[in-house]
Every structure is written in structure tokens, then in C-alpha cells.
Amino acid sequence: MIRIDAVFDRAGLLRSCRISGHAGAGKKGYDIVCAAVSVLSRTMVRTLEKRKGIAVESAAPGRGLLNMDIKYEAEGQDFLSAAGAFFMEGLTSICEEYPAYCTMNIRVEEKE
Fold first, then answer.
1. Average pLDDT over residues 107-111
2. pLDDT above 80: residue 59
3. Do 49 and 83 touch, CB atoms closer than 8 A?
4. How many other CB atoms are there within 10 angstroms of residue 2's CB atom?
5. Distances in Å between the alpha carbon of 83 and those of 29, 32, 62?
6. Which helix H or strand E contains 68, and what residues bound it?
7. What is the CATH number of domain 2-108?
8. How far apart are alpha carbons 64 and 24 in whole angstroms?
């Protein structure tokens, strides 16, 4: 199963996301759930990396693992809001369509 842990700040902006595991919905290399989560996640990282006012630290320390930590300045806030909403809607859709293979936990940071 793929586990997604996303953290938002009090302003509603994505601050981090940890994705781990394998869906097991198909053979290696042919798993539609893994492919969907992978493409969406890599696209999010690459898009944010190119945006002024947003800094992303990402790592894929092994197969089935992706970590991203996001920092932003005022000039990147609106873009991050839109990109984060798009990203989370995509992940939510995958989790809803394939609940046996993908789960998501969302929390809001307590600190300022």
C-alpha cells in the first residue's frame, strides 16, 4: 500500500509530503496506482523547483519513497496555494478510486 502523509501550515499551504510504499495493484512496472502517484509527485516537485519564491528539498532515498519539504516567500504563496490544491486533489482522487492500494493522512502544523 502507498501511504501519503501531507502537512499544511496554518495558512493552508503545503509544507511537506512523504510518500512511501508500493500499491501492489499490478505487476512491477505495470501498476497504475504507483504510476499515477509517481508522476503526480515528480511533477509537483519539478514544477515547484522552477518557481521563484518557493524552495523545495526533495529526496527519493529508495524505490517507493519520496520526501519533499517546501519553504516559501510571499511572492511564491499564491502559486504554492494553487499547485498544492491541484496536487492534493489528484492524490485524493487516486486514494478514493483505489482505497485498497493508497491511503492519505493530512495534518496542519501547530507552529507558526
1. 86
2. yes
3. no
4. 25
5. 27, 23, 25
6. strand 65-72
7. 3.30.70.1490
8. 11
> Does residue 54 contact residue 76 with C-beta atoms inside 8 Å?
yes
DSSP bridge partners of 40: none
pLDDT, tens digit, 9 for 90 and up, residues 9-55: 999 999 999 999 999 888 888 899 999 999 999 999 999 999 999 99
Pair 19, 2: CB distance under 8 Å: yes
- At 86 the pLDDT is 97
Mean pLDDT over the full length of the chain: 94
Residue 23, CB-side half-sphere exposure with 13 Å CA sphere? 24
CB atoms within 10 A of CB 109: 13
What cell was used for 98? 483505489
Contact 60, 8 (CB under 8 A): no
C-alpha cell at position 81 = 496555494
- Say how far apart CA 83 and CA 37 lie, in whole Å: 15
25-31: list long-range contacts, CB under 8 Å, 24+ apart.
25/98, 25/100, 25/101
